[in-house]
């Protein structure tokens, strides 16, 4: 993935604003100016707690007014201990009679579990935002304890069926909380005095391990938090199969708050999550320096495959050995026929039958065959009956029956057939197609193969598309000649920069594209620019 790819969406992460604690307006003005002048503009802003220094009405009103000044940019928040208890400390059941309620002032911005908010992040990615109150179940001081009710609400919100905005997209799952869940190296330089361990014990998350396990089980991608007023990024992982890796990001105080001292611009900082057009996600840290915010750190957090992996495990919950996949190989011939060979791994046959489809807007399929490989490695041929039957424009179907008495559990299944007169080897072949009948790729002189995930594969772990061309018609192996496209929901194919970078080509007519954890609702295209004439260096 390239750090120079185009940004299509961004989330700004603020934390620990502490309105009401010696808060000079100039600090907020510089923060506000930088965030609102970013290009592209933020898609959303999240604030992970300690919005006020103590829960007083005047502080809440000032904070609400300040956050509303971001205008049309939506703001999402979660409470911190300072938003709930006097100066951030809870003492058993006692609560100051003058304290006001965070929930009253931020009822429109706090999307508390089990509720969630889906935020589109560009054309192919969405974020499911869900927040918790990490202080709600604690008993003493500034620490956190996440109780059973919060765990249940969190699981419910994360397990909800996909929202309409999430369907056909890569989905990022983000939890907002205030307290840290992993050790914070920037805070560990304190001397081993009596006060140091006491301070640590009174500010931590008491059951952080249990929280992280739940987040991992529910395949949460990101946890955004504050609390310690320092920046940190780390990842929680387990050796248990199929549990997700949780990236935990701490934001320092975005107003540079020092406890009991107030705001300081040169200690202020905030984070930005950028979604790029190659489906990568990057984290950038900005820090206050001499009256301006400057970039101080940048990290790549995810590639598209990371989000597809999460979706795969969420959807199927299968063991690694049961993962299903499809390899499809196209061998293009000089006579413009194409031999298509498909290999399905771990396919499940029902009633010893199988059906497969063929799609193309050029040519006609013929001569189908199919077989399975049994546990002893023996090939068992299937009966294809009368072969392909046309089911719709550009669509054919072949049904196969296998001579097996009992239904196998999982098998490797192979199909092969030939497309007659289907291949576009040259620009002249494309020109022979009436302009009104050329699809969007042929309009660019791009020959192509494509495949989706057939219904027979319930747990798609991979899709591999390979093409062999006659060498004299192979495209030159240069940038822009061999590309990957995707098409979701029957829409025209769209260039995928990330998949295009993963294409293998040997420059002599062999090309391949492997998509790990493909989207079952998406077609994947391997396309190449046809030649005007045969290569003169090949005989």
Task: Briefly characterize the structure.
It contains ten helices and 29 strands. It is an alpha+beta fold and about 550 residues long. The chain has two domains: about 5-315, Purple Acid Phosphatase, chain A, domain 2 (4-Layer Sandwich); about 320-530, Immunoglobulin-like (Sandwich), CATH 2.60.40.
Report on this model:
By secondary structure, the protein is α+β, with helices and mostly antiparallel strands. It has 2 domains: 7-315, Purple Acid Phosphatase, chain A, domain 2; 318-529, Immunoglobulin-like (Sandwich). 16% of the residues lie in helices and 34% in strands. It is built from 10 helices and 29 strands. The protein has helices spanning 25-36, 57-68, 81-84, 102-105, 148-159, 195-201, 208-217, 304-316, 427-431, 497-501; strands at residues 7-14, 44-48, 75-78, 90-91, 117-120, 125-131, 140-141, 170-176, 222-225, 232-236, 246-250, 269-276, 281-289, 292-302, 324-332, 338-347, 353-359, 364-373, 379-381, 389-392, 395-401, 411-420, 446-451, 460-468, 482-488, 494-495, 504-505, 510-516, 522-529. Strands 19-18-22-16-15-24-28-27 form an 8-stranded mixed sheet. Strands 3-2-1-12-13-14 form a 6-stranded mixed sheet. It is elongated. The two termini are 38 Å apart.
Helix tally equals: 10
Return residue spans where pLDDT drops below 50 for at least 5 consecutive residues.
none
Largest sheet data: 8 strands, mixed
Q: Could you say what the CATH topology of the largest domain is called? A: Purple Acid Phosphatase, chain A, domain 2
* Separation, N- and C-terminal Cα atoms: 38 Å
| Average pLDDT for all residues | 89
| Integer tally of domains | 2
Instruction: Give the strand order of the largest sheet, numbering strands 1, 2, ... along the chain.
Output: 19-18-22-16-15-24-28-27
CATH homolog superfamily of the largest domain: Metallo-dependent phosphatases
Class computed from helices, strands and strand pairing: alpha+beta
Gyration radius over CA: 28 Å
What is the second-level CATH architecture of the largest domain?
4-Layer Sandwich
* Global outline: elongated
CATH class of the largest domain: Alpha Beta
């Amino acid at each position: 993935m390239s750090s120079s790819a185009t940004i299509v969406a961004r989330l700004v992460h603020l934390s620990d604003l502490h309105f009401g604690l010696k808060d000079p307006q100039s600090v907020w003005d510089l923060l506000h100016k930088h965030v609102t002048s970013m290009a592209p503009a933020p898609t959303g802003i999240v604030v992970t707690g300690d919005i006020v220094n103590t829960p007083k009405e005047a502080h809440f009103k000032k904070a609400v007014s300040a956050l509303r000044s971001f205008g049309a940019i939506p703001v999402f928040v979660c409470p911190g201990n300072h938003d709930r208890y006097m100066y951030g400390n809870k003492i058993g059941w006692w609560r100051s009679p003058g304290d006001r309620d965070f929930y009253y002032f931020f009822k429109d911005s706090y999307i508390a579990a089990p509720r969630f908010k889906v935020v589109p992040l560009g054309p192919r990615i969405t974020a499911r935002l869900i927040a918790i109150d990490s202080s709600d179940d604690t008993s003493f001081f500034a620490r956190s304890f996440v109780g059973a009710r919060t765990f249940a609400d969190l699981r419910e919100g994360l397990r909800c069926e996909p929202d309409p905005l999430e369907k056909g997209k890569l989905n990022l799952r983000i939890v907002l909380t205030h307290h840290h869940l992993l050790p914070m190296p920037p805070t560990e330089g304190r001397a081993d005095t009596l006060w140091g361990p006491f301070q640590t014990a009174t500010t931590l998350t008491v059951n952080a391990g249990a929280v992280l396990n739940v987040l991992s089980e529910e395949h949460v991608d990101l946890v955004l938090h504050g609390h310690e007023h320092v920046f940190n990024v780390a990842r929680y992982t387990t050796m248990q199969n199929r549990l997700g890796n949780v990236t935990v990001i701490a934001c320092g105080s975005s107003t540079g708050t020092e406890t009991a001292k107030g705001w300081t611009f040169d200690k202020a900082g905030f984070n930005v999550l950028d979604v790029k057009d190659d489906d990568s996600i990057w984290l950038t840290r900005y820090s206050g320096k001499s009256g301006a915010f400057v970039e101080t750190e940048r990290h790549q957090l995810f590639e598209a495959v990371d989000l597809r992996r999460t979706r795969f495990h969420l959807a199927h919950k299968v063991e690694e050995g049961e993962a299903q996949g499809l390899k499809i190989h196209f061998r293009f011939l000089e006579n413009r026929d194409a031999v298509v060979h498909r290999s399905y791994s771990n396919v499940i046959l029902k009633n010893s039958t199988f059906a497969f489809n063929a799609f193309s807007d050029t040519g006609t399929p013929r001569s189908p065959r199919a077989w399975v490989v049994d546990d002893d490695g023996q090939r068992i041929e299937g009966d294809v009956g009368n072969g392909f039957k046309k089911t719709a424009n550009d669509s054919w179907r072949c049904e196969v029956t296998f001579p097996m008495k009992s239904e196998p559990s999982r098998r490797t299944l192979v199909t092969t057939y030939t497309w007659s007169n289907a291949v576009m080897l040259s620009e002249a072949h494309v020109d022979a197609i009436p302009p009104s009948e050329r699809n969007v790729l042929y309009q660019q002189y791009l020959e192509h193969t494509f495949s989706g995930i057939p219904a027979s594969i319930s747990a798609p772990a991979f899709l591999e598309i390979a093409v062999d061309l006659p060498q004299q018609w192979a495209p030159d192996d240069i940038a822009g000649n061999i590309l990957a496209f995707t098409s979701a929901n029957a829409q025209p194919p769209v260039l995928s920069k990330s998949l295009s970078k993963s294409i293998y080509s040997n420059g002599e007519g062999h090309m391949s594209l492997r998509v790990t954890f493909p989207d079952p609702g998406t077609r994947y295209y391997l396309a190449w620019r046809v030649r005007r004439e045969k290569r003169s260096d090949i005989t």
